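User: We ran a pulldown and think these components assemble together. Before we commit to crystallization trials, I'd like a predicted model of the whole complex to look at. Sequences follow.
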Amino acid sequence: MEFSGYPRKGGLAGTRNYIGIISNGVCTSDAANWIAREVAGCVPFTHRENCSLVSPDKEVVTRTLINLGRNPNLAGVLVVSAGCEHPGIAPDTVAQGIAESGKPVDICTIHQPGGVRAAVSRGMSLAQKMASDASRIKREPLPVSLLRHGVECGGSTPLSGIVTNAAQGTALDFVIENGGSGGFSETPEVIGAEQVVAVRAVNDEVKRKMLKVVRDYEKRLTASGYDFFGSNPDPQNITEGLSSIEEKSVGDVRKGGTKPLMEVVGYGEVPKCQGLFFIDTPGHDLPSLTGLAAAGCNIITYSTECAVPYGFPFVPVIKITAKKDHFAQYSDILDYLVDIERTITDVRSVGQELFELMLEVASGRKTQNELVGYTGACDLWTVVPMT
Amino acid sequence: MIEAVVLKPKDNIGVALADLKTGVEVKIHGLEARVKITEPIPYQHKFSVRRIDAGEKIIKDGVVIGKATQGIEPGRHVHTHNMTGLRLKAKRQGK
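Assistant: Here's a predicted model for the assembly, 482 residues in total across the polymer chains.
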């Protein structure tokens, strides 16, 4: 089975063909946005971190930026740097890490004679050259095994598990059955359902790691002394009938499908396996989406019963819902309506339909958030308290 | 139309796939016996499919999702007023 994608070095495939304008630190967000806005084919990734990072955030943010840059949906990358971020997030380390994947990378620095305007002008010229070269790359038939499917959920209801997450979990099963890989994240939303996931681990090491990331996350949260009921599950979750984090988790983990769990990785890392993986991320959807993109996912499905409008800058995000009224009202947000009764009685047929939509989107069909241009939101996960 | 579903045989709650009215003997996907609904169950919410004692675990999809904070007769609404989760409980340090 094939889709039409962009071949990349290292045996990877892009479903999109952008130049990434990656802001190295928060000080260069505006410059990155300006450059991306002015040059066709460019997309920005910005975030709020800066030079004051200490371990472990310093290493995690650096590897996240590198692996975002290495995502196969980017044909080339321009790293926008203030020039003074050493030793926090060293721009040359980020650029070098991305360049090792074999794609063109350049750095544009603001602290140079001429300041911001000169840097943005220089950045636009560099980006335009890369975008011109990238525009010569053509889509070609590529095996589905080169798809890496990220699965996200937000706005859970008591039916998400058996309907929308079951649907996207089954689509993920189809990707894996066709030789591809994919995975899910959102560690706090595994709390209480960790055994459901761990029992599918391919070996004891993966099982131990899966249980450890959940235990560690729960420890960090409980040690803070805050009561998270009302945050996770959130007010919408509770109003719709979810009574505990465990109940939310039972539904959330269904998005991981039914295949053996091959690998568990930390935030910003790239799983090496074929098949199913888990990434340690927050339950907050923005940093979770970033984790999926850094893991090399070239297509994402996202069950959202609260009709979250945002997508991701350079990975197509297919939004699915089981709410007919939302699907009718928010047609420029949602891409696929999951039939509740059919999913309960014949989940394979629904999963296959979603899988077929994924192949279309992977081959170039635009998602609603891509059509609207609602793809600018991005965030990273850090664990060290802000000072 | 499926009006309610029980996900795993050991579950003691079902999930409403429609607003369920008091007095209705609801047919449940995944469960042989019908359950008589004794108070309104909103769409998507949980209801007890058998008697649940105070302190007994609430089981959905084969997984413990909390415990009953009071005895719950069959056909009752199960939510935060009569159950509580057991995980992610803050360890309050003194001020």
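Chain B has a mean pLDDT of 93. That may be worth checking against your pulldown data before setting up trials.

User: Thanks, that helps.
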